[in-house]
Write a structure and sequence with these properties.
Helix 1 packs antiparallel against helix 13 and helix 2 packs antiparallel against helix 3. The protein is mostly helical. A two-stranded antiparallel sheet has the order 1-2. Strand 1 and strand 2 form a beta hairpin.
Length: about 300
C-alpha cells in the first residue's frame, strides 16, 4: 500500500504555508494538530456576512460576497472535517453555528424539504458556470447540499436546541429520496455520503444509515468503468466490499502519484467557460484547497505515514 511519507508531507506543508489561503492553512493545521482548531473559527469569521450566512468567495468558484446556502454548506463541511462537535464548550463555535442556523432556517426558502444552493446575486459576480443561478435547481442538484447540511447541523448543534429539532424534522424529506429510482449524479453521492458520515458519528437513524450505505454502493457499481468517477471521495463513509475497495485503493494510489511539478495538487474542474478572467486566479487558489482536501482524504484512509 502506497503512503504519503513524512518527508513528502513536510514538503507539502511548506508549500501550503506559502501558497494557500488562510482558511485552507487553518484547516490543514487543525487536521495535523487538533489543538489548532480554534484558528478555523477565526478564519471563517472573515467570510461571515451581516445576515449570518457565509459568502465572500468561501467557495473558490463563486466570487459573490453575499451569503448563499452553498457557502454555508462549505463552512459546515469545514467545521465537521476538523472535528468540531456540539459537545465542545466553545463560545465562538456556538456563535457561528447559531448564525448559520438562523440564516438557513429563518432566511432561506425551503421547497419540498430542500434549500436552493444559489442566490440570484451569484450572476452579478464572477463565478464558474456551476454556480450560475437556477430558480429550480433540484432536477440537477437534488438533495445537495441540503442532505449534507442537515447532517452537519446534527453534529454541531446541541440536541436541545431549536435548529437541531428543525433538522430532524426536515431530514425526513431526504430519507424519502432514497425510495426514488432515478440514477444519481455526483451531487447525490457527495451529499448522501456526507449525511451518512454525520449519522454514523452521532449514532442516529441506524436503519436509514443502512439504506443510504446500500444505495451508495448500488449506485457506485454503475460507474465501475468510469476513470474519472471519484470513488474514494464519494464512498469515504461506506463499508466497502472488495470490488469497490479495489477502486478506492487504485484511486488513492493515483492521488499519491499525481502531485504537480510544483509539489501540490491541482484542481481538475474548470469554470466551464472563459467569461471571467477570475478563473485564472481561482485556479491558483485551488492548488492550496485541493491539496488540503486530498490530505484529509488520504488521512481518512490511513494513507499517510505515521
Amino acid at each position: 500500500m502506497n503512503l504519503l511519507s513524512k518527508a513528502e508531507l513536510s514538503e507539502i506543508e511548506y508549500l501550503l504555508f506559502n501558497k494557500a489561503r488562510d482558511i485552507d492553512v487553518s484547516i490543514y493545521n487543525a487536521i495535523v494538530d487538533p489543538s489548532n482548531k480554534e484558528f478555523v473559527l477565526d478564519s471563517l469569521m472573515l467570510y461571515m456576512t451581516k445576515d449570518g450566512g457565509m459568502g465572500s468567495g468561501l467557495h473558490i468558484d463563486n466570487y459573490n460576497p453575499n451569503a448563499s446556502v452553498y457557502q454555508v454548506y462549505e463552512a459546515l463541511r469545514m467545521l465537521s472535517a476538523v472535528g468540531f462537535s456540539s459537545e465542545e464548550k466553545n463560545a465562538l463555535l456556538e456563535q457561528i453555528v447559531n448564525k448559520l442556523g438562523n440564516y438557513l432556517f429563518n432566511r432561506c426558502t425551503v421547497e419540498d424539504g430542500l434549500w436552493n444552493p444559489f442566490v440570484k446575486s451569484n450572476d452579478d459576480f464572477a463565478h464558474s458556470e456551476e454556480f450560475s443561478y437556477l430558480e429550480h435547481p433540484y432536477s440537477i442538484w437534488g438533495v445537495h447540499p441540503t442532505a449534507a447540511i442537515l447532517g452537519y447541523i446534527l453534529e454541531l448543534v446541541q440536541p436541545t436546541k431549536a435548529y437541531y429539532k428543525k433538522a430532524l424534522k426536515q431530514i425526513g424529506y431526504i430519507f424519502a429520496e432514497l425510495d426514488k429510482e432515478k440514477v444519481w449524479n455526483e451531487y447525490q453521492f457527495i451529499s448522501f455520503n456526507a449525511l451518512l458520515g454525520s449519522l454514523k458519528k452521532m449514532n442516529l437513524f441506524p436503519e436509514e444509515q443502512t439504506r443510504i450505505e446500500e444505495r451508495l454502493k448500488k449506485e457506485a457499481m454503475l460507474h465501475l468503468e468510469e476513470k474519472e468517477f471519484n470513488f474514494a471521495s464519494y464512498l469515504s463513509n461506506v463499508e466497502l466490499d472488495s470490488i469497490l475497495q479495489d477502486k478506492v485503493n487504485s484511486q488513492l494510489d493515483e492521488i499519491l502519484s499525481s502531485r504537480a511539478s510544483h509539489g501540490l495538487w491541482e484542481h481538475k474542474k474548470g469554470w466551464g467557460s472563459n467569461r471571467y478572467p477570475e478563473a485564472d486566479s481561482a485556479a491558483l487558489k485551488w492548488i492550496g484547497a485541493e491539496s488540503v482536501w486530498n490530505i484529509i482524504l488520504l488521512q481518512k484512509y490511513g494513507r499517510i505515514e505515521e
